[in-house]
Amino acid sequence: MIYEAGKYEIIVIGAGHAGCEAALASARMGCRTLLVTMSVEYIALMPCNPSIGGPAKAQLVREIDALGGEMGVNIDKSSIQMRMINTGKGPAVQALRAQADKHEYGREMIKTILGQPGLDLLMAEVEDLEADEGRVKAIVTRTGARYECQAIVLTTGTYLKGRIITGEVIYDGGPGNQFPAVRLSDNLRDLGIKLGRFKTGTPPRIDRTSVDFSRTEEQPGDDYPWRFSYISPPPQREQLSCWLTHSTPQTHRIVMENIDRAPMFTGVIQGRGPRYCPSFEDKVVRFSHKASHQLFIEPEGRDTDEMYVQGLNTSLPEDVQIRVLRSIPGLENVHMIRTGYAIEYDYVIPTQASLTLENKVVTGLFTAGQINGTSGYEEAAAQGLIAGINAALKVQAREPFILRRSDAYIGVLIDDLVTKYAEEPYRMLTSRAEYRLLLRQDNADLRLTEMGRDIGLVDDYRWDIFKDKKARLEKGILFLQTTTFTPADKEMAHYLSDRSSAPLRDRTSLWELLRRPEIRIDGLIASGWMAAGADEVMDQIQIQCKYEGYINKQLDQVRRFEKLENKQIPVDIDYDQVYSLSNEALQKLKEIRPASIGHASRISGVTPADINILWISLEKRRN
Amino acid sequence: MNEELIAALSTPPGEGGIGIVRLSGNGVIERVNQIFSPAKGCRLVDKGGFTLTLGWITDKDGSKIDQVLMGIMRAPHSYTGEDVVEINCHGGSLPVRRCLQRCLDLGLRLAEPGEFTKRAFLNGRLDLSQAEAVIDVIRAKTNRGLQLAMLQLEGKSRYIEEIEDDLLRINAMVEASLDFPDEVGDLDNDEALVILGEILNKLDKLLAAGRRNEVYRDGVEVVICGKPNVGKSSLLNALLRKEKAIVTDIPGTTRDVVEDYINIRGIPVKIMDTAGIRYTEDLVEKIGVEKSREVIENADLLIFMLDIAEGISPDDMDIYNRVDPERVIVLVNKDDLESKKISPAQLERLFAGVKVIRTSVINEVGLDELEQAVEDKVLSGAIPGDGLDIMINLRQKGALECTREQVWNASQTLQVVPLDCLAIDIWGALETLGEISGKSLKEDVIDRIFHDFCIGK
Questions:
Q1: Could you give the dihedral angle defined by the CA atoms of residues B336, B340, B346 and B347, in that order, rounded to the nearest 10 degrees?
Q2: Closest-approach residue (CA) in chain A for B140
Q3: Which of these, A29, A12, A114, lies nearest to A395 by C-alpha position?
Q4: Cα–Cα distance between A256 and A285 in angstroms, integer?
């Protein structure tokens, strides 16, 4: 029995990291939005590692924040430890990483969602997506409620036909032993959408009270009060430590003795797993020369004794997992609370989506997050935000919002997803970003907040903070560039010689002096050459100054890149009418329907000759 | 894209009457004006379309590379619809290639295969019905051009692959350290320096092998110098006769040859006879003398002739002292004469370490030895390429040199700049090398990270 339950402009299905961002963005942009989840308790669940950030991922979080998204604010409310990673390797790759209190993270997100005007929350399993002439129309829940809508954002994570594997034990399920979404998968196939199958996994969880920490190495958080969001207040609470231990030759022996029971090697697991997150048994087999692997024991929260064993992601049988754990220093008497498992799931092959994350087959259907074959909370949230924004813009008949590879990691992420045929779950890496030196976590607000304001996601509070920071930054830079010294300035001469810095030859600005490796901005402030200011402003000035040469090199590259990006391909182009394209190029161009010549050139199998031909045919069309 | 200036050789490579370097792009006339010295005071930029201007293409130091005719076509009345310059050089691949190289020095880019035609089309210079023919040309040229270039490199040597592999390795080391700091830790600077050093070494060998090969393809310039009547013309004629490639119209001793092309043991040689250098107050002759000096300074190799009957005069030594001893072969001519005013001890003392050959040019004595010396000298001038038999075209050479520069930068800055900046050069090197094979290697770097390092906490 199906009944008419109501009408929304946008319906978001799934309330994980992608779904929460999508729903909040759409509601904040003024669209009446419904967020449907199978379990309210599991909103913004972190079913795997209890951390957010790290290289490339921290940049994503800062970008989400700069655009007015929620992840940065939410992790600042619920972190138990913050560390800045890669501090010695340059500003582009420095990355903040937080350990999260998983339960608090979820609770805080639920509060935000329930407090968001224009956003309704519904607990239900969606069984049917209705489409009419290739355009989404409504959803129907298992209990028969039918909701009409103009756009759907599908963010169902790994729940589509989820299948959980621990040794010989195999059953259907989603993460955290929840029900899988079975019918939705078939429903998508019926709509003409192509699905693939991936695999991922998670390690066992253990009881803190059974760990001997004296045999491990403490990993405390940084003393500095880091935060992800540009608008969060400084953290107040005490931080918790993580603990470092390692596997032993005995651990590896136990794995090898039971390798014939490992689903990874018996052929039980067929989905493709991520190389950057291999199972422990895979590491032991592939890197057999390594006598030991690092393992981090991380708290899952402040109010729980459950701990996560980072590095021990496994689908070995439960009895083997216990023996493996107990062969590790500090875990000799450990009690395992949850068993590690591998999960296989369906995903929507993301080359079917356009750069707005809207499906190219079904109009009004957006997909975001792990359903698009990515991995990671941050990657999911970033896509959720973009899908939510574009769903809202579509409903409001406004121009789509697309970030370029030169704008943001989010741009790289989505461009890669819809262009490349990924063979494993996609994870963001700094090495995927060609303009890495420009896309830093320290300048995400400078890159994106104005765009966020234009879309309507950046509220006045954030906007004022941003404008103030920008003004102070510009003032500081102007001061450095216009304050100059000559060789006759005795005080400056002393200052330089005290720091073994070469004496001035002619009139030199503070900006030029700051470029010298031995001159640092805190030193200039301490000696009274310039006024003190907020850390984030001073750091920003210093980075822009010291790396100016390399930054300009990258800006040149961006200018070349943009020429081809600006060469738009009309949406109605008929590739069959383009003379002399190679077969492979023809097939891929028809499938991906690139937005520009630059976009087309990144499709594997499309050669420079094909690009030239395409270009010529566009010119011919224009004439 | 069309604001980029492009250049290409538009006559087939090899010996020919003339060679044409074609340039296109708006503003190219102003640009090429920087390396053009007109015969009469008329500047190239003041010339209208469809004109020819005589003058010289000049080298970095202002010396003349070749006398040329500059054909100018102004936009939109040209093949491509843009400003076009056609440099008509003397035949023989050396002058043509040197002129082309000078244009590239100016910041022009080598045209892609079929690019002139493509521009012609894009600028509406070709009938629309010709579009498909143009596309066929471009497809054929791009694909075949790449295949040919690769064929030249592959099979003969795995050198490029080795360099690529080394670059992938160092890129993976850097990127793994940036993306997986917990698992990989810091970059091992010592190891990185060793790898960068190996890459530099291999690039140098490849470039050297390319240069050695260029000698056979492009030839060298050899200048005969010495006082008047020492036998320069005789030597030139003797070498020409011996080769029998060029039969002179009037055989004789006073043939007024200033320069000619001969072939010495497979190496194309442009051989020039200087007008005779000596101090003089005669203005007309002085100009000739200046010109000779210029020719001497630009030559790849000099044959410095002495007359055994005349002895060694201060004039001789004045000429000799102006040249680089590394590039000299001393020829003691007229060895058949009785009266010898040059003693072996004197030669030993004045030309220590320099190749000295005694000849009697009119009797064709010592010419074999001279040819052997020319070959030795020319080939040793190019650093031995480890026996690599590799042809490198100008595009590949450019890519290799650019790769080398970035690797060198990285090795110089390794200790001082942070890893994210270093990565710009290290990745840039791999990307540039990829231009040779037409490959994009970004994904390969990521694959390599997972191959080389145990990633995954």
A1: -10
A2: A609
A3: A29
A4: 8
- Residues B453, B363: Cα–Cα separation, whole Å: 72
The answer to whether A313 faces chain B, any CB pair under 8 Å, is: yes
A 51-110 residues with CB < 8 A to B: 55-56, 85-86, 88-93
CA distance A318 to A509: 66
Question: Residue written as tokens 């510009």?
Answer: A474
CB A136 within 8 A of CB A129: yes
**Token pair 């990258």 is at which residue?**
A554
Residue B51, token pair as written in the block: 């004109």
Distance in angstroms (rounded) separating the CA atoms of residues A411 and A56: 12
CB-CB under 8 Å, B175 with A612: no
- In our burial notation (b when 16+ CB lie closer than 10 A, e otherwise), range A53-69 reads bbbbbbbbbbbbbbbbb
Q: Give helix then strand counts, H and E, for chain B.
A: 15, 13
- The complex scores an ipTM of 0.88
Q: State how far the Cα of A61 lies from the Cα of B282, in Å rounded to an integer.
A: 82
Cα–Cα distance between A49 and A487 in angstroms, integer?
57
Pairwise CA distance, residues A111 & A109, whole Å: 5
* Confidence grade of residue B434 (pLDDT, cut at 50, 70, 90): confident
Q: pTM (2 decimals)?
A: 0.81
Return d(Cα A1, Cα A146) in angstroms, integer: 10
Q: Tokens representing B134?
A: 């143009």
Residue B424 CB partners (closer than 8 Å, separation 6+): A437, A550, A553, A554
Q: Give the Å distances, CA to CA, from B378 to B226, B302, B421.
A: 20, 11, 41
Nearest-CA residue of chain B relative to A298?
B457
pLDDT tens across A318-336, in order?
Answer: 999 999 999 999 999 999 9
- Spatial CB neighbours of A326, under 8 Å, sequence gap ≥ 6: A332, A333, A334
Query: For residue A131, which phi and psi values (nearest 5 degrees)?
Result: -130, 150
DSSP string, A296-330: EEEES-SS--EEEEET----S-HHHHHHHHHTSTT
